[in-house]
Specification:
Helix content is about 35%, strand content about 15%. It has helices at about 45, 75-90, 100-115, 135-150, 155-165, 175, 205-210, 215-220, 235-250, 275-285, and strands at about 1-5, 10-20, 30-35, 55, 65, 95-100, 120-125, 225-230, 255.
Length: about 290
């Protein structure tokens, strides 16, 4: 693996290349992106594609990529510009792209803005919360996570986030009637370290979950776009947003093994099924539905 730093006007972007460029066997590089996950989260999945040149990167302001734009928020348009810059720096033509969570939102913006960059996009569980029928309630639930984080710190915010993301079905009165989540119940610290910049728990990434894909631009792009969902996510928020995103694009959602982080191993807590996930991704990239 070779690590590179791409200096742009707004950020120094660090990315890793596993394998040769140009890529072998006539296949384009396989780029993997997330948000707020950085390159470390894709180590298990990348290792399962030894026959491919795999590229991972840290979004600006996360991991090893430092910001120079004086901002702390995360928007899909800015992130898409960064991914475009990385693809150009590779000098290997359009890529195949696996994008997860907020990275899937970035990828949809990328295809709309830079349609020549990607041959096939697999957008895994984009958290586009305003697309679901209960969008206003989902926005309220998201604000509750931010409020818990602002009032009581990281542990409280993360506990609230877990409660929100594991809630099955629409956000009803029963959801909002629950008592405040107890961090100790989830093995999280109750003490407040004073920090408030977490991109997952603050409002710094709301532009990602508020994003509405440009359906016409995506349809006009030469990119084959696939919306993917984990089989365990069926009833929870990211499963429902995936179905809504697929319907918006006029397609059916493509089912993958495991859950929202199903491509990760035990290093990140609740392990997924990286072997099965990688096999399914390989099939979909090869044209399977």
């Amino acid at each position: 693996m070779k690590t590179h730093t791409l200096e742009t006007a707004g950020a120094d972007l660090v990315y890793d290349v596993r394998g040769p460029l140009p890529a072998p066997a006539g296949r384009p590089p396989l780029l993997m992106i997330g948000q707020p996950m950085d390159a470390t989260g894709f180590a298990a999945l990348a290792a399962r594609f030894p026959e491919r040149t795999v590229v991972t990167y840290d979004p600006r302001g996360l991991g090893r990529s430092t910001r120079k734009d004086g901002r702390v928020d995360h928007t899909p348009q800015t992130q898409a510009g960064d991914v475009h810059a990385v693809i150009e720096a590779l000098g290997a033509g359009p890529v195949e792209l696996f994008a997860s969570s907020g990275g899937a939102v970035t990828a949809l913006a990328l295809v709309a803005e830079y349609p020549a960059d990607v041959t096939t996009l697999v957008a895994h569980e984009p958290p586009l919360i305003t697309l679901t029928p209960d969008g206003p309630a989902a926005v309220r639930a998201r604000a509750g996570v931010r409020d818990a984080y602002e009032k009581r710190g990281w542990g409280a915010g993360m506990a609230a986030f877990v409660v929100m993301t594991s809630w099955e079905g629409e956000f009803t009165d029963a959801y909002f009637a629950q008592p405040e989540a107890d961090p100790a119940a989830f093995g999280m610290p109750a003490e407040d370290d004073g920090s408030r910049g977490d991109p997952l728990l603050s409002d710094l990434s709301w532009a990602l979950s508020d994003y509405r894909p440009d359906v016409d631009a995506i349809a006009a792009a030469p990119t084959r776009t696939v919306i993917a969902v984990g089989e365990e996510s069926d009833a929870v928020q990211t499963g429902r947003t995936s179905v809504a995103a697929a319907e918006l694009l006029g397609q059916r959602v493509t089912v993958f093994p495991s859950h929202h982080s199903g491509f990760c191993d035990e290093e990140f807590g609740y392990p997924g099924k990286p072997d099965e996930f990688a096999q399914r991704l390989r099939e979909v990239l090869d044209g399977a539905s």
